[in-house]
Amino acid sequence: MDIKRFDTYRGVCVDTIGTKGDVSVVVTDTKYVCKPKEDTEAYELYKQIESGDVIAVAFYYVKEYSGIDRILRVIFMPKADFEKMVSIDDCQYIGNKIHGLPMGVEMYSLEGAHLSKLSMC
């Protein structure tokens, strides 16, 4: 599966109770990631992103689900897990842009990050 930054899917579970929302890819490579110091956990995560094994995705609701556009969380996840998540029957690819959310040239920090946390530089 060729995953690109801002690929967006509808009908994905965005929380633990099965609420459906949208998921958009926000990091596919290290272009928008601040390079951390070597020999740190953050650097190991950076290397996983660099190799293409890990991406970051934004889980969010859109107006038709919640009345407002809002991000729930942005997480790093193994690319293979993302591919499985968006390949379910009721999940639909809706394009290569993030609908209703102000995203652009954000830089992400890996300091203190892990597969369930992401912060801005």
* Number of DSSP strand runs: 7
**Uncertain stretches:** 114-121
Quickly count the domains: 1
H/E element order:
EEHEHEHEEE
Separation of the first and last Cα atoms: 29 Å
Major β-sheet profile? 5 strands, antiparallel
Mean pLDDT: 80
Overall morphology: globular
Helix content: 10-25%
> SS-based structural class?
alpha+beta
Strand fraction equals 35-45%
Specify the number of helices: 3
Cα Rg: 14 Å
Oligomer: single chain
Strand order of the largest sheet: 4-3-2-1-5
Description of the structure:
This protein has 121 residues and is of the alpha+beta class. It has one domain. It has three helices and seven strands; from the N terminus they run ββαβαβαβββ. The strands form two sheets. Strands 4-3-2-1-5 form a five-stranded antiparallel sheet. A two-stranded antiparallel ribbon has the order 6-7. The termini are far apart.
